[in-house]
Design brief:
This protein is of the alpha/beta class. It contains twelve helices and 13 strands. Bound molecules: guanosine-5'-diphosphate, magnesium ion and zinc ion.
């Protein structure tokens, strides 16, 4: 398809979105009960440069997803997984007309360890520092549906432009990605997604017990993202030195244990759980996902002090402000000394739910699946309907109240 046409289509889609979004925003401002419920959360932590997407914008984006959008997004995901060495039809025309066959571009193989403002750092496995690379213009002009060409974790081929500078010529097919909806600047709306990390095996969902408070619905969102991408999930609850009420703590983590999810309970302050975490991270490629301030960088430094991720002083109870810390603003990858690859991400809240409709949500809750079909109404939302098998299962303890509450919270943010 011709580039101009794509641009125009995107533009009018974006404009329509913008108008609808504004209308929804206005309506919600006047009356939305959801809006009210969210206020304390927004006060509790001050966003980073990367995650300054307010919840409202995010949920509106999902609600107004136009018909056919889900299919379009699936196609986009398929493209993302094929890297830039996929089908030729997706390639921008080569000015020289000398496009080499797929996968046969000359270049030095390397691993993208960090990305910022259109450049990336590539480790070419020679023991030296990663090389700062531009990205070949023809890669940038490909229409992929994603805002970025490369992400941390990508396998690429580069050519050197000198000793210290290179150019990414090709992005090899990816085995997995995690992406997020993208909003370029305040005021601009984009329907595109941004690839945050590529080629990961495992997601370490990091939450803190306090400062900031544990947010179980966010854990569920990440769990859904992990299941959809067929990755391994491990939940890490950090700052357990700040647990005041062990009974409350146990009640919060038990639903996840009962479902068979692996949990690692840590405190970078006391050292609890750090060895267990270190063993986990020794194998495979793990991305750390969690709100800003939960302790992702601190945990990585505890495992390998030479990483030298400057972080703030250990949190005291009641002092979380979200400010004055060293914050990770871009995803970064490290090869650990003892094996394993880790990628630290900035606090990203919105992985995972793009394209899921309200009626599909329960399918992502393994404990609900068996009860589906038992409701009196086939289109039961499992909220207020009589004869609801899910609510009956909550009442008799087969489904935990915590998970059900998370379900209803997330449900309200999805499109019908
Ligand atoms: N009390 C306590 N504070 C911690 C713990 N882990 C990290 N912190 C503090 O939490 C703050 C945020 O940590 P950081 O690693 O920057 O979080 P990130 O944004 O997830 O990378 C820092 O001030 C850390 O010192 C912990 O286990 N207990
Ligand atoms: Mg950090
Ligand atoms: Zn029901």
């Amino acid at each position: 398809m011709d580039d101009n046409k794509i641009q125009i289509e995107n533009y009018s889609e974006d404009m329509q979105k913008h108008v609808r979004k504004q209308q929804l925003r206005n309506t919600r401002r006047k009356s939305g009960p959801k809006n009210k419920a969210k206020k304390p959360r927004q006060k509790e932590w001050i966003p980073d440069s990367w995650d300054d997407i307010d919840d409202l914008d995010y949920s509106v984006d999902e609600r107004i997803m136009p018909r056919g959008e889900e299919e379009r997004r699936r196609e986009i995901e398929r493209k993302a997984l094929s890297g830039t060495s996929g089908g030729n039809s997706e390639r921008a025309a080569d000015p020289q007309g000398s496009e080499p066959a797929s996968g046969s571009r000359p270049g030095i193989p390397g691993l993208v360890v960090g990305v910022s403002s259109g450049m990336c750092r590539v480790d070419i496995h020679n023991g030296a520092a990663p090389i700062l690379c531009d990205i070949r213009g023809s890669l940038k002009s490909q229409e992929t549906g994603f805002t970025n060409v490369v992400a941390a974790g990508d396998q690429v081929k580069i050519n050197l432009n000198g000793e210290q500078r290179g150019v990414v010529e090709e992005v090899l097919p990816r085995r997995s990605i995690l992406a997020r909806p993208y909003r370029p600047d305040v005021g601009k709306i984009s329907s595109k997604q941004q690839i945050v990390v590529a080629n990961i095996d495992r997601v370490l969902i990091v939450a803190s017990w306090r400062e900031p408070n544990i947010w179980p619905a966010l854990i569920d969102r990440y769990l859904i993202a992990v299941q959809r991408n067929q990755l391994e999930a491990v939940i890490c609850v950090n700052k357990i030195d700040l647990v005041e009420d062990p009974a409350e703590f146990q009640a919060t983590i038990k639903p996840y244990q009962d479902l068979g999810f692996r949990l690692i309970l840590t405190s970078a302050e006391t050292g609890a759980g750090i060895d267990e975490l270190a063993v986990l991270l020794k194998s495979s490629t793990t991305v750390l996902a969690g709100l800003s301030g939960v302790g992702k960088s601190t945990l990585l430094t505890a495992i390998q002090p030479s990483l030298d991720l400057r972080v703030g002083k250990v949190t005291q109870r009641g002092t979380f402000t979200g400010q004055g810390r060293h914050t990770t603003t871009q995803s970064r990858l490290w090869n650990l000394e003892n094996g394993g690859v880790v990628i630290d991400t900035p606090g990203i809240r919105e992985f995972g739910l793009v394209g899921i409709k309200q009626a599909q949500l329960a399918e992502w809750y393994p404990e609900m699946v068996d009860h589906l079909g038992g409701c009196r109404y086939s289109d039961c939302s499992h909220s207020n309907e009589p004869g609801c098998a899910i609510k009956a299962a909550v009442a008799n303890g087969a489904i935990s109240e915590l998970r059900y509450k998370n379900y209803t919270q997330i449900y309200d943010e999805l499109c019908a």
